[in-house]
Amino acid sequence: MAKLPILEFPDARLRTKAVLVETVDDEVRQLVDDMLETMYDARGIGLAATQVDVHRRVVVMDVSDDNSQPLVLINPRYEPMGDEKEPLSEGCLSIPEYYAEVPRYLKVKLNALDRNGEPYELEAEGLLAHCIQHEYDHLEGVLFVDYLSPLKRDRIMKKMQKRHKLMQDA
Ligand code: NI
After folding, report:
1. Residue 52: phi, psi to the nearest 5?
2. What is the C-alpha separation between 116 and 157, in angstroms, rounded?
3. pLDDT above 90: residue 112
4. Residue tagged active-site, from 86, 118, 135, 140
5. The pTM of the whole model exceeds 0.85
6. Any catalytic annotation for residue 135?
């Protein structure tokens, strides 16, 4: 396994729309394993392939407290179960140190393929449902800051650019 570099906002590559995975082969499984290692190392609860500059529809997640429930979502699709939305504080490995409340559907039904290419269905609510919607957005090139006011988004962008310049100069 290998840890992969994570793209950070406002990197334009995060805006790429990912393509469907046609076959879940060893290359995809290697990507899944590398993404899980990268996510756990960064103490995240979800990571989309877009964030590691691979523009295929692959997501990994683990919302458990002890990294015991890895979830692999290949070609995920979801539909809301009901109209109810709730705001929850969200962060993102591509926008480190920033959190903001984003309203998402409370309950969703997920359809995806697992690491072996087997289809599965899952009804999710709360944090897991929130995470599914956040990661799905990544595959569409959408970031949680897109839900904020332009003013807030600009402020975060400027701070991120400053951070990147500091990292470059260091
Ligand atoms: Ni994210």
Report:
1. -110, 25
2. 38
3. yes
4. 135
5. yes
6. yes
